[in-house]
Amino acid sequence: MLKTLGAQIKEFKKDSVLTPVFMIGEVIMETIIPLLMASIIDDGVSAGNMNHIYLVGVLMVAAALASLTFGILGGQFGSRASAGFARNLRKAMYENIQTFSFSNIDKFSTSGLVTRLTTDVTNMQNAYQMILRMCMRAPATLICAMVMSFLISPRLASVYLVAVLVLACILGLIVSQATKHFSQAFPKYDALNESVQENVSAIRVVKAYVREDYEISKFKKASDNIYKIFCKAEGIVIWNNPVMNFTVYACILTISWMGAHMVVQDTLSTGQLMNMLTYCMNILMSLMMLSMIFVMVTMSLASARRICEVLEEKPELANPEEPVHEVKNGDIVFDHVSFSYKKEAKEPVLKEINLEIRSGETIGIIGGTGSAKSSLVNLISRLYDVTKGQLLVGGVNVKDYDMEALRNQVAVVLQNNVLFSGTILENLRWGNKEASEEECRHACELACADEFIRKMPEGYHTYIEQGGTNVSGGQKQRLCIARALLKKPKVLILDDSTSAVDTATDAKIRKAFAEAIPGTTKLIIAQRISSVEHADRIIVMHDGQVNGFGTHQELLENNAIYREVYDAQMNGSGDFDE
Predict the structure, then answer these.
(1) Which CA distances in Å does 108 have to 156, 167, 309, 467, 572?
(2) Three-class SS of residue 138?
(3) pLDDT tens for residues 362-418?
(4) Nearest C-alpha neighbor of 86 from the set 233, 303, 249
(5) What is the edge-to-edge ordering of all strands in the sheet holding 537-542?
(6) Can you tell me the mean pLDDT for 461-474?
(7) 352: Cβ contacts below 8 Å, ≥ 6 apart
(8) What's the mean pLDDT in 504-509?
(9) CB contact at 8 A, 432 and 426
(10) Which of 273-277, 362-366, 469-473, 480-484 has the highest mean pLDDT?
């Protein structure tokens, strides 16, 4: 874990080294000042030597200014190092997430990844700054003050030693108890973020069903869970202050009483007694700082583990050593393909799939909910790897391709259409970032999107809100189809992506595909038989297997499931689920 996190310090190593150096310099200056003060009292005030008072006074001012300068520089370099460390953590996590396959992403919830990129990284930033500054300052102060105390009076210094040992044991007990609760708190943030994300993204549904009270109640419950855990943790940590104050005042009283006797007996000077009291406060305050460091580091350990989970997650899909970069055509062959989302699954999602699809064919895929239609097409662009058998595209096993080259030639319009904040042109150019406005317009004409875009106030420069909330479901689907067409792919997959458009528009889109991209293999997943009946061939999926494969007429004659649903839909009701 330390190696993984330490690798993200990168260009901030210099700042990370200079910060503790300046903090130690600040401590040394603070340790010198009490000695100079004792000298003023013993050799200046008591002896009536004004020259000595002036000289040592100047040295005290210089030491104070040096301490201030070191403190400022330490703070500046520490802030830069910790902020840079946090930036690199976020960047590394985000970049690694981009390499994840769908199976990797399935391991983490969206809210969990958001929490890791925000709350957990902030905890690490605060902990790192505290380690660089306080974790150097506190031990250095403790050691310097303890050494100076023993040099002045071993007898009085032994009081510190006993107090330090007792206090260390008590603070260790407090920290260990608080740690258990802090470790439980951060996973609760995932539930809280999930509640917020779900509510905001589905706010229209919440309003439509008047479920505001339920959502408020759910959020309150998640928030209360975090509140209760932190109350328990802070309830334990709060004992730091009374224990520390009791120890400080006990030490001051003991040293004052013992020191006064030693001053009267002339075995200790007044200035030295002042020194001892100053070092007493330094030692005990450094212990307080150490206890807070332990609490902060303990809190950040849970965050560190969660961050490392993302950084150390290796993509389950990788390019071969010598990948193929060219997809020759849109031929697709499923050769005894079986697939499971999890290795330990008892039953595969897809079972012994054998299909041969010729380049340029239009293939309909139809079947009930859960029949593995989407799972079938997800394998083509290698969003997942087959568990058994092999899948060929353009005569080459998909595992032998460079994944970027393969996915650039296999355009997918997913079931859940996603548009990003930006203009319509910017969204369309996700398909081809070099596409001209004329090419974008042509793609939209094929997808029957040009007509409604022209009616918008700013046409193709109209701004799309996050998630495409200012366009309808059908408009969003057509824009996503146009975006996919701009890739000029060898294979085009439409995963139930015309479900929100009317049948007339659906027919226009299919006709445009047939005329404009005859060489592209088109796979159309649909629930309506009218969307696929004109396809060259149709695949009927049932329970993860190919139940039928042929033309519309062949399936009507030979496939009972297809014929039954066709009859039901032609009579105005019924679908594959029924």
Answers:
(1) 57, 42, 10, 21, 42
(2) helix
(3) 999 998 888 888 889 989 988 888 989 999 999 999 999 998 889 888 888 876 778
(4) 303
(5) 410-413, 491-495, 521-526, 362-367, 537-542, 545-550
(6) 81
(7) 336, 337, 338, 389, 545
(8) 77
(9) no
(10) 362-366
State how far Cα 39 lies from the chain centre: 57
In the DSSP assignment, the letter for residue 422 is E
Taking residues 294-298, what's their average pLDDT?
72
Q: Per-residue pLDDT for 354 more than 70?
A: yes
pLDDT at 293: 76
Nearest partner of 530 among 505, 547, 512, 513, judged by Cα: 505
Give 571 or 532, the one with higher predicted confidence: 532
Q: For residue 487, what is the DSSP state?
A: T
Contact 193, 115 (CB under 8 A): yes
Of 310, 426, 376, nearest to 549 (Cα)? Answer: 376
Half-sphere exposure of 36 (CA within 13 A, CB side): 19
Structure tokens at 161: 């030693």
Please give the Cα distance from 192 to 218 (Å, whole number).
9
Task: Please indicate whether residue 106 or residue 412 has the higher confidence score (pLDDT).
Answer: 412
The token duo for 174 is 């407090």
The alpha carbon of residue 123 and the mean position of all alpha carbons in its chain are separated, in whole angstroms, by 13
AA letter at 133 = R
H or E element, residue 356: strand 350-357
Other beta carbons within 10 Å of 564: 13
Provide the token pair at 120. 């957990």
Instruction: Look at strands 332-339 and 388-393 and give their pairing.
Output: antiparallel
CB neighbours (10 Å) of residue 405? 15
Nearest to 576 by CA among 533, 537, 542: 542
CB 353 within 8 A of CB 305: no
**Burial of 200 (C-beta count, 10 Å sphere; 0-12/13-18/19+):** exposed
The amino acid at 62:
A
What does the pLDDT read at residue 10?
Answer: 85
Mean pLDDT along residues 224-237 = 80
- pLDDT at residue 574 above 60? no
In this predicted structure, the answer to whether residue 544 has a pLDDT above a threshold of 80 is yes
Q: Is the separation of the CB atoms in 315 and 105 below 8 Å?
A: no
- What are the residues whose beta carbons fall under 8 Å from the beta carbon of 116, sequence distance 6 or more? 93, 303, 306, 307, 309, 310
Of the candidate ranges 118-122, 226-230, 426-430, 518-522, the one whose mean pLDDT is the lowest: 226-230
Q: Mean pLDDT score of the chain, rounded to an integer? A: 83
Contacts of 366 (CB under 8 A, 6+ apart): 373, 525, 526, 527, 529, 532, 538, 539, 540, 541, 562, 565, 576
Q: Which of 41, 33, 63 is nearest to 282 (CA)?
A: 33
Residue at 432: amino acid letter: N
**CB-based contacts of 406, cutoff 8 Å, min separation 6:** 327, 381, 382, 393, 398
Kindly give, in sequence order, each residue whose CB lies less than 8 Å from that of residue 284, ignoring residues fewer than 6 positions away: 163, 167, 244, 247, 248, 251
pLDDT of residue 393: 92
Among 563, 535, 567, residue whose Cα is nearest residue 547: 563
pLDDT at 259 over 70: yes
Distances, alpha carbon 179 to alpha carbons 287, 296, 301, in Å: 18, 9, 9
